């Protein structure tokens, strides 16, 4: 089945004209201040980007965000998903990625996002918190909560 060329399809153009809509191309709708580039995406997929904290934002649910993508902040032994109390104190350049090596998830981040009921203020939840933290799998998390592309949402700049 051959699809018509909608840019030269008269009924489409008539409707577009009646609506007052402009024809956009990918180049016109891409804004490097708001959208990650193909290069940034490929680096996040395989390695990490070294970015200053002032280039990061957080979503309303505290997840870390770089442009239109959620990211993790890497440290030696842990990684951060959210703007937890530890991330809030960070300054300067940080490693951001979509992949982790052998780092464990930051329990403060899980608490900040209220991920699966993690609550560090209630001592009776300690066993539950440890279980969720130990069993956390970033790949499964990205499947449930896609990291890219994100629609425009309310964000807060660090």
Summarize this entry quickly.
Helix content is 32%, strand content 18%.
Give the arrangement of secondary structure elements.
Layout: H1 10-19, H2 26-29, H3 38-46, E1 49-52, E2 57-59, E3 64-66, E4 69-70, E5 72-74, E6 78-80, H4 85-88, E7 93-97, E8 104-105, H5 107-113, H6 126-135, H7 138-144, E9 155-157
Parallel strand pairs: 6-8
Antiparallel strand pairs: 1-7, 2-3, 2-9, 3-4, 5-6, 5-7
Total individual domains? 1
Mean pLDDT rating: 87
Number of strands: 9
Shape: elongated
Question: Which segments are poorly predicted (pLDDT under 50) over 5 or more consecutive residues?
Answer: none
Taking the alpha carbons of the first and last residues, their distance comes to 50 Å
The radius of gyration is 20 Å
Instruction: Give the H and E element order.
Output: HHHEEEEEEHEEHHHE
Main sheet attributes: strand count, strand direction, barrel closure: 5 strands, mixed
Approximately how much beta-strand content do the residues carry?
15-25%
Helix content: 25-40%
Number of helices: 7
Strand order of the largest sheet: 1-7-5-6-8
Strand-pairing-aware structural class: alpha+beta
Commentary on this structure:
It is a single chain. This protein has helices at 10-19, 26-29, 38-46, 85-88, 107-113, 126-135, 138-144, and strands spanning 49-52, 57-59, 64-66, 69-70, 72-74, 78-80, 93-97, 104-105, 155-157. With 158 residues, the chain is of the alpha+beta class. The longest helix has 10 residues, at 10-19. The radius of gyration is 20 Å and the shape is elongated.
């Amino acid at each position: 089945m051959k699809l018509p060329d909608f840019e030269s399809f008269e009924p489409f153009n008539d409707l577009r004209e009646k609506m007052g809509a402009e024809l956009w191309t990918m180049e016109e709708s891409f804004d490097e201040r708001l959208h990650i580039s193909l290069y940034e995406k490929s680096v996040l997929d395989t390695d990490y980007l070294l970015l200053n904290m002032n280039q990061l934002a957080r979503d309303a649910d505290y997840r870390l965000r770089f442009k239109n993508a959620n990211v993790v902040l890497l440290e030696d032994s842990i990684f951060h998903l959210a703007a937890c109390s530890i991330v809030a104190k960070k300054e300067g350049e940080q490693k951001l990625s979509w992949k982790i090596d052998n780092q464990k998830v930051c329990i403060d981040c899980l608490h900040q996002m209220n991920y699966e009921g993690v609550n560090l203020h209630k001592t009776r939840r300690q066993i539950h918190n440890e279980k969720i933290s130990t069993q956390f799998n970033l790949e499964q998390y990205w499947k449930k909560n896609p990291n890219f592309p994100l629609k425009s949402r309310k964000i807060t700049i660090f």
